[in-house]
Amino acid sequence: MFVYEKKLQYPVKVATTNPKLAAVIISQYGGPDGELGASLRYLSQRYSMPYPELKGLLTDIGTEELGHLEMIGTLVHQLTRNLTEEQIKTAGFDAYFVDHTTGVFPQFASGYPWSAATMQVTGDTIADLTEDLAADAAMV
Amino acid sequence: MEKPEVKPAVCEAGQGTLPGCAALAFPYIPMQSNNPTRYSRTEALQTGTLFPGLDLPFKAAIQARTKLPNTALVELMALDFAVTELNLYLDTHPQDQEALGLYASYIKLAKEGREKYTAKYGPLDSAELVLEDGYTWLNDPWPWELGGNG
Predict the structure, then answer these.
(1) How close does chain A come to B118, measured CA to CA in Å?
(2) Which end of chain A has less Cβ packing within 10 Å, N or C?
(3) Does domain A19-139 have CATH number 1.20.1260.10?
(4) Which chain B residues touch A126 with a CB distance below 8 Å?
(5) B118 to chain A: which residues are within 8 Å by CB?
(6) Per-residue H/E/C for chain B
(7) Which tens digit of pLDDT belongs to each residue from A87-116?
(8) pTM score, two decimals?
(9) Number of domains in chain B
(10) Is residue B40 included in any domain, yes or no?
């Protein structure tokens, strides 16, 4: 099970509203190599892992990724605080705003909603770990 | 299933061991050596890893470390980050006694830091209830809000 801890893993403090940046960073939230996919990838792959080291590692990394998801969500939320009408129109944030206003929605930077099609769970140890390497390399 | 044999070798910082003979057509990742060099907990939180060998910044510019505020919450974040990092390390190196000892001491420090923090600023967990204070779990700010962290 999971227990919520009411703090971020790392401080997030945004001084200046920047919807243009938020529209790009949202991909790290719900994009093809974002934190939501990372978390679900690890937490779903662990069931078929044969070694205790891997069961532990995928459980613990998958959990930490949820903490990363929260940091990115915070970043997007703070970047879109107190938006003016002018900022919405001119900063390339209008397409996002019409659907989600300043809510934080898991989507690609292109606007495509988060999709489980961006991850894989094969049940094969090596195939899954290799996929994790590719996904993590794309993330950093 | 049989685990691939990893030959012990002396590796420099930032390097790890690979099996002497490896199965064909499988990718291998160097295994982090036991008792690797570590950053202090504050350096670790600033860098994003406890281990200098795994400090691989995407761009050189990122190496300029972010200055973190000296607050009770940031200190707790640093302790918790060291705990998380050692937790992940021990998942793949459960026999490393040095790291296990360090893990135990960081857990103790984090527990003390947490008690000090929650006594002053309120609960981090909904079950950390101080009855006479009422239901403080709902108190603002939440972590994503202005003033909510750091």
Answers:
(1) 11
(2) N
(3) yes
(4) 26-27
(5) none
(6) CCCCCCCCCCCCCCCEECCCCCCCCCCCCCEECCCCCCCCHHHHHHHCCCCHHHCCCCCHHHHCCCCCCCCHHHHHHHHHHHHHHHHHHHHHCCCCHHHHHHHHHHHHHHHHHHHHHHHHHCCCCCCCCCHHHCCHHHCCCCCCCCCCCC
(7) 988 888 999 999 999 999 999 999 999 999
(8) 0.91
(9) 1
(10) yes
